[in-house]
Q: What sequence folds into this?
């Protein structure tokens, strides 16, 4: 076979070789991990060819590879220099320092080439550098681009000064921008670029959205302000208040959207039926302020209360099933609250799993984490200094005398005494409330009672709520707990007080309800008789039907549901007013007095007796929780209650923020809130459960009033469910529901749930045990390591130079594992040596090239290793790139 | 927004957002805080990156720092040549590290530097003494201080070389429940 003319030969050769090259690369992709040099491999593949093309091919390849090497270098260099700066394993710079202008020029050239389709590059041999990216290169660039991207994403985590971060960032971005388009080729390229663009847009959008979200959190600045002045414990109250506000907004939306607004828009209007009309006897006074203030008169007969709603199954053109909606909303208020409380509790506990380590590092933690960097107020700072000093002293004392606790008996005695006193207080207050409620029932039977007698219950309860907590606090001073623990005790006690109050109040209310229920039958009769007599009375023209009785004249029952609702409404409002007045008098006026009378007083008011008030965390938190319990209980009977509560929370947010900032001082012993406010949440959950009970009881076992409310005329309130199922669903569904309600099915279901709870509980127990054991093991390992290190440290002083390095590496928060890094380091050093002598070759490539072209030709094809070596020598870049591409993926 | 954009170019803001934990708005706020410290010194145009330094006396008087016993150390650690005078970049760096979003490792690295008073890459007994004295305003007696330092070394020194290396410190701070919540400055 005679060799074809030169140009053609080259052309044909190249096209032939191209395919072989490709194959080679593919094979390389498979086998390449073993570190074989790509050039060598090609050689072996090419070997069975006839000699002369082989020679030409080699010549050409050398030339081409040379060009390629030069051309590829900028990319390598940037990667290289970056790597070096990263402090990872670095290639040493092989050539003289990169000439900037040249580099840029080459890059541009390359960029242009990139834009041409691949096939075009076949055309000329002089340009030679067709298809600048082989697959392995692409893979490598891809890897680098990914690395850069990772670097960009984690840039803010690097412990570098800003200037360095900025330059690194710019470089990385430049790199990514330059090359990420190259990764997709042909048709995919545009799509790839588009996807990159979208990704960028997406990142930007997410960032903006996050900005927006943080802006949307209400009162963030106010709370931060308070936190920096009063510490996190006071701020935790406000955060809790904000959370509560959010929950109430949702409840408000539910009730207003699904009950009140449909009723107002589509229900029969005011004055059309007796339950929606003020009775004749009350009509005169119905608009008086004093009556309205007590939620009587027009307010009582409005959509804010249960009694206003009609028992029509459907209302309006939407055929909206209002009684059903009323019932379901009442249930879902509880459902939603339960769900949200439990969810936030769960998410709080997840953050606080790593406890129990603190006893090992008492002093270290005190030393390095006790200063709260948030403190930006000199008073708070003073307090913090004092508390740190005392806590250090306490720890020192503990450390010195951990064995002997001389005062243990005294402390115990005092604690028991304190608890005894507090229980006495609780019992007393409980009795007082019961007494007052009984009395108020008597008052309610009498006519024209005074204002005090009407509001006695509320007044007494508010007074108790005002005076008991400080009393408890005084008593608790006997106990000498850490303030954080003390706060919990205090919370628990006041909670018990409020709970006792609430329950006595409820029991009394229940008595009232039962009384009203027993009267109901007679009233029902009276109503019937009145109507009957009205329509059948003689002396009226029989032919003309009588106009119906005016709704205001119809005698009606007492509607106990509305009465309960009114009771809760009054309690909420009076509670709110008492809170505000307490703040105004107790905090603000006191602060004013202390501040301004200090100029002309015989002793120092600010430091002495009255001084300024501290913010009462426990009282406020419990007030909030207690109030929420009222809302939960009352919202079924007074749908408008939630609206009032939303207003209350809103105003108290602003009012209390102002009061705290203007007239309170930080606590004497500043303490951090426990990290999760799960204690608050637990109390809230308890209150939720307790307030669920009476509502469930009334729904399930008391008959609703016969002439008011959406369930009037039914035997029980839940009958509305049955009615809906029977009338609105197909019959088989009704059957299914009836089947599901069968006790034979419910009891096994409950049993199953119990079993599941038992199982999960035991699983969690065993897991926590395993956790504890693991922790112990880690502890033991640490001890062993400690002793090892101390031995080693003395033995090999030389190694100590290495450890800080590695530790520094780890602090740079990079994701490289040390093993591959060191691997490539040794490789690169090896390559480096080679590269240096190639450096001399290629620097004089223009003159040296012809000589080297002859070299492989003169050799017999059998002597492949030599030429392979030569090739690898001439193309250090290729081998380097191959190596780095073959690095084990990590 | 128009007036805000003139302080930095859009790219600068983007870069700062990439390099810190702040949003655009926060960066602007931080800039104005910085500018407020020395209105006659700091120009309102940062598009050309002027090399302006605000002296430590002004940095330390910020309400966020003025009550901090370690304010001088913080300023020194974050300033370029350790003298506490800060450029805007240093300033942003400082508050980025101290921000809520910064990861524990980064915070631990800088906390170590802050507590390493003599800059020898180890927290030695002398550094510890300095820390305690600053924390308590010198209200502990000398024996108490030395006892505390001894206890700290005893607890946290992993390799028993009588001083805390960064590794020891990270090891210890990893377990601290309050570190993240206390080692941060709101601004």
A:
């Amino acid at each position: 076979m005679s060799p074809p003319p030169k140009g053609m030969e080259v052309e044909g050769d190249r096209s032939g070789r191209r395919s072989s090259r490709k194959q080679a690369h593919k094979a390389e992709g498979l086998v390449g991990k073993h570190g074989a040099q790509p050039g060598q491999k090609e050689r072996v593949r090419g070997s069975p060819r006839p000699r002369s093309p082989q020679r030409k091919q080699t010549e050409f390849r050398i030339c081409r590879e040379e060009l390629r090497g030069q051309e590829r270098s900028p990319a390598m260099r940037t990667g290289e220099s970056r790597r070096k700066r990263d402090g990872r394993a670095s290639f040493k710079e092989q050539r003289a320092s990169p000439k900037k202008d040249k580099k840029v020029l080459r890059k541009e050239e390359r960029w242009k080439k990139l834009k041409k389709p691949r096939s075009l590059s076949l055309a000329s041999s002089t340009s030679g550098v067709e298809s600048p990216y082989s697959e392995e290169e692409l893979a490598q660039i891809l890897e680098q681009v990914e690395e850069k991207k990772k670097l960009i994403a984690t840039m803010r985590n690097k412990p570098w000064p800003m200037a360095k971060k900025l330059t690194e960032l710019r470089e990385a971005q430049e790199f990514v921008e330059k090359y990420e388009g190259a990764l997709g080729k042909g048709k995919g390229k545009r799509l790839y670029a588009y996807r990159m663009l979208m990704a960028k847009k997406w990142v930007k959008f997410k960032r903006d959205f996050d900005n927006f979200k943080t802006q949307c959190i209400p009162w963030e600045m106010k709370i931060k302000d308070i936190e920096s002045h009063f510490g996190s414990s006071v701020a935790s109250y406000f955060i809790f208040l904000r959370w509560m506000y959010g929950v109430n907004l949702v409840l408000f939306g539910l009730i207003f959207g699904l009950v009140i607004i449909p009723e107002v828009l589509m229900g029969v209007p005011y004055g059309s039926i007796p339950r929606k009309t003020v009775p004749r006897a009350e009509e005169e006074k119905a608009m008086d302020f004093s009556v309205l203030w007590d939620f009587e008169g027009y307010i009582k007969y409005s959509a804010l209360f249960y009694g206003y709603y009609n028992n029509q199954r459907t209302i309006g053109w939407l055929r909206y099933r209002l009684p059903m909606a009323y019932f379901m909303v009442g249930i879902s208020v509880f459902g939603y609250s339960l769900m949200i409380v439990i969810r936030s509790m769960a998410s709080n506990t997840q953050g606080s799993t790593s406890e129990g380590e603190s006893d090992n590092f008492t002093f270290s933690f005190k030393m390095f984490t006790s200063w709260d960097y948030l403190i930006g107020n000199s008073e708070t700072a003073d307090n913090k200094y004092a508390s740190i000093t005392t806590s250090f002293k306490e720890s020192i004392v503990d450390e010195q005398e951990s064995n002997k606790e001389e005062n243990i008996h005294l402390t115990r005695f005092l604690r028991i005494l304190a608890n005894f006193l507090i229980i006495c207080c609780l019992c007393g207050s409980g009795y007082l409330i019961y007494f007052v409620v009984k009395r108020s029932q008597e008052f309610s039977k009498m006519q024209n009672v005074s204002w005090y007698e009407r509001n006695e219950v509320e007044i007494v309860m508010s007074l108790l709520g005002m005076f008991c907590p400080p009393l408890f606090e005084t008593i608790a001073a006997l106990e000498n707990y850490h303030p954080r623990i003390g706060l919990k005790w205090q919370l628990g006690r006041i909670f018990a007080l409020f709970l006792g109050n609430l329950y006595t109040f409820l029991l009394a209310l229940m008595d009232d309800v039962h009384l009203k229920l027993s009267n109901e039958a007679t009233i029902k009769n009276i109503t019937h008789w009145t109507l009957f007599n009205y329509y059948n009375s003689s002396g009226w023209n029989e032919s003309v039907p009588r106009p119906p009785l005016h709704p205001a004249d119809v005698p009606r029952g007492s509607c106990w549901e509305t009465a309960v609702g009114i009771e809760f409404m009054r309690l909420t409002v009076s509670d709110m007013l008492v809170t505000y007045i307490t703040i105004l008098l107790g905090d603000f006026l006191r602060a004013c007095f202390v501040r301004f009378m200090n100029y002309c007083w015989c002793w120092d008011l600010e430091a002495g007796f009255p001084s300024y008030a501290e913010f009462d965390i426990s009282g406020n938190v419990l007030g909030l929780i207690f109030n929420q319990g009222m809302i939960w209980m009352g919202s079924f009977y007074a749908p408008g209650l939630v609206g009032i509560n939303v207003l209350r929370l809103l105003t108290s947010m602003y009012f209390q923020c102002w009061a705290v900032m203007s007239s309170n001082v930080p606590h004497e012993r500043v303490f951090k809130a426990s990290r999760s406010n799960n204690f608050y949440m637990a109390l809230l959950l308890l209150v939720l459960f307790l307030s669920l009970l009476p509502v469930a009881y009334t729904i399930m076992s008391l008959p609703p009033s016969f002439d008011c409310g959406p369930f009037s005329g039914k035997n029980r309130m839940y009958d509305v469910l049955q009615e809906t199922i029977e009338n609105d669903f197909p019959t088989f569904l009704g059957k299914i529901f009836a089947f599901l309600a069968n006790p034979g099915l419910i009891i096994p279901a409950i049993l199953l749930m119990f079993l599941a709870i038992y199982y999960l509980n035991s699983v969690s127990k065993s897991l926590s045990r395993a956790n504890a054991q693991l922790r112990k093991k880690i502890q033991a390992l640490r001890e062993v390591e400690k002793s090892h290190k101390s031995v080693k440290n003395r033995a090999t002083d030389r190694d100590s130079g290495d450890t800080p390095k590695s530790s520094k590496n780890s602090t740079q928060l990079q994701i490289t594992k040390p093993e591959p890094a060191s691997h490539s380091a040794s490789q690169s050093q090896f390559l480096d040596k080679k590269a240096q002598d190639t450096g001399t070759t290629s620097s004089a490539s223009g003159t040296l090239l012809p000589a080297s072209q002859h070299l492989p030709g003169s050799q017999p094809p059998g002597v492949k290793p030599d030429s392979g070596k030569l090739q690898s020598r001439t193309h250090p870049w290729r081998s380097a790139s191959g190596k780095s591409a073959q690095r084990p993926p990590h | 927004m128009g007036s805000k954009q003139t302080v930095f170019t859009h790219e600068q803001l983007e870069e700062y957002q990439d390099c810190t934990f702040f949003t655009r708005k926060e960066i602007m706020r931080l800039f104005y805080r910085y500018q407020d410290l020395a209105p006659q010194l700091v120009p309102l145009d940062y598009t050309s990156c002027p090399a302006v330094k605000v002296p430590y006396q002004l940095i330390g008087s910020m309400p966020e720092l003025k009550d901090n016993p370690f304010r001088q150390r913080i300023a020194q650690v974050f300033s370029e040549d350790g003298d506490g005078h800060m450029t805007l970049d240093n300033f942003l760096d400082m508050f980025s590290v101290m921000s809520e979003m910064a990861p524990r490792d980064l915070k631990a690295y800088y906390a170590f530097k802050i507590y390493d008073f003599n800059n020898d890459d180890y927290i030695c007994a002398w550094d510890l003494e300095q820390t305690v004295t600053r924390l308590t305003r010198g209200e502990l007696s000398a024996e108490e201080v030395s006892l505390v330092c001894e206890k700290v070394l005893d607890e946290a020194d992993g390799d028993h070389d009588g001083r805390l290396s960064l590794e020891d410190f990270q090891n210890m701070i990893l377990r601290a429940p309050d570190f993240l919540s206390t080692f941060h400055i709101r601004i």
About this structure: DSSP finds eleven helices and no strands in chain B.
